[in-house]
Amino acid sequence: MSKTTRREFIKKSGFTLLTVGLSQQAFARHLKMAANSALTRAAALSTNDNMLVVIQLAGGNDGLNTVIPRGGTLRSQYEQFRQATLEIPVANILPIDNDAANNQLGLHPSLQKIKGLYDQKKVGVIQAVGYPTPNYSHFRSMDIWHSAYTQGLKATGWLGDYLDVSFPSNDNPLIAVSIGGSLPLSLRAKSITVPAIGNVDTYKFQADPRYADPNRPETRPEYNNRIQTFLALNREGAPERVLYEQIRLTALDAYDSSEELQSGISQYVADPSIVYPNNNPLARALQQVARIVAGDLGTKILYVSMGGFDTHQTQATPNTPLTGTHATLLGYVSDAVDAFYRDMVRMGKDDKVLMMTWSEFSRKVRENGNFGTDHGASGPQFVFGTPVKGGVFGVHPGLTDLYPGQDATKHSIDFRSIYATILEKWLAVDSHEIVGGSFETLPFV
């Protein structure tokens, strides 16, 4: 075995390396390159076992047709801006509490199951969330939300910084997990490796199934032999060969995390009364999250994303504003969140799991003539779960005091206040270094 080279092994076995995010992070973690960072020195370590599930609504969710005015001056203004094709009739809106300014509000009719959770005080609706001098580019605004940094570019995300702060000596390869094909900036860290997993069932050592299929008794011995060969080739360190070490440690991280993951998800037993619809991409992702939670793997952050919210066109179906792209997407969110929440209750994990949504911006208040809306600024965000103190937080944005030339609503709650609240009150760490200052916390937990 000692004469086998890595190149020969990979060629013969058909081995596929597992996706684990940035390989530099694995190298840095093993060499303790960031052990004395300013963040680590400044913050207390997280000590609880609470989990955060982040749901990104990519593309810019139309907040005005998500949390909708039901009466008064705001309603009149809403009808003026949305009367052509996008206006949701009052009779179809799902009523929720008035905001702090006594504005009558409600949810889009596609959010029926979220309304049910709201009535149980399991939903927080956070109004007019944004940041100063908004950027209307998807990429730049996403970077700002991912990094909690508005002044320029930043290589790490707010959750990556949290991981660096809280787990400087982390040896859990599944301390955070992103469900999807690529790692979001939110989870990029200096010293922590975060895996990006497209499918938890296929995140494992893979070899050419013709010769090494673990499910076929006649090829199982060869499969095991290839695992042992892989481990033997990668257990021997060579610190003086930097690139080699980076690849070797990344491969070992991938293998270790895959073994732990497969063991963990085997603990999940589906309940036929809880349905994650196959045609709902967010539901499929959240069911994978549920399987990870069931495994008690010590995971702190779980991240999912669903796109499609860039509704310049066909946001609503002509003459039928209750259908269309936006209604479909909100229905996906509602069904997925409800199924996941009920799964957490069934597993007895609901008091340890907090869900939050974010979208890089909302849409303009005035529809654009193509049955859609263009890029806006502030909008509502949601938190879900048993730990939530349900209700409406903040005030619905005004529809006449807009950013000049943009038809975009102004913010009254900085998105970093949401982050600070979650960091301080849920994840039990000091937020100041992570979000770049002092931001008021909110009473939703």
Q: Can you write the helix and strand succession as a string? A: HHHEEHEEHEHHEEHHHEHEEEEEEHH
Major sheet, described briefly? 9 strands, mixed
CATH architecture descriptor name:
3-Layer(aba) Sandwich
Mean pLDDT: 90
Report the span from N to C terminus. Answer: 56 Å
Instruction: Bin the strand percentage.
Output: 5-15%
Given helix and strand content, the structural type is alpha/beta
What is the 3D shape?
A: globular
Helix-residue proportion: 25-40%
Oligomer: single chain
The stretches of 5 or more residues where confidence is low (pLDDT under 50) are 9-24, 26-44
* Rounded Rg: 23 Å
CATH topology group: Alkaline Phosphatase, subunit A
Question: Can you tell me the number of structural domains?
Answer: 1
User: In total, how many beta strands?
Assistant: 14
Name of the CATH first level: Alpha Beta
- In DSSP terms (H or I, runs of 4 or more residues), the helix count works out at 13
Describe this structure in words.
By secondary structure, the chain is α/β, with parallel strands linked by helices. It has a single domain (16-204, 254-435), classed as 3-Layer(aba) Sandwich (Alkaline Phosphatase, subunit A), CATH 3.40.720. 34% of the residues lie in helices and 13% in strands. The protein is built from 13 helices and 14 strands. It has helices at 6-13, 23-31, 38-42, 72-82, 112-119, 138-147, 158-166, 220-235, 242-265, 281-294, 325-347, 415-426, 432-435, and strands at residues 51-57, 67-69, 94-95, 105-107, 123-130, 176-179, 196-197, 301-306, 353-358, 379-384, 391-393, 402-403, 408-409, 413-414. The strands form three sheets. Strands 1, 5, 6, 7, 8, 9, 10, 11 and 14 form a nine-stranded mixed β-sheet that branches. Strands 2-4-3 form a three-stranded antiparallel β-sheet. Strand 12 and strand 13 (408-409) form a beta hairpin. Helix 2 packs across helix 9, helix 5 crosses helix 11 (325-347) and helix 10 runs parallel beside helix 11. The longest helix has 24 residues, at 242-265.
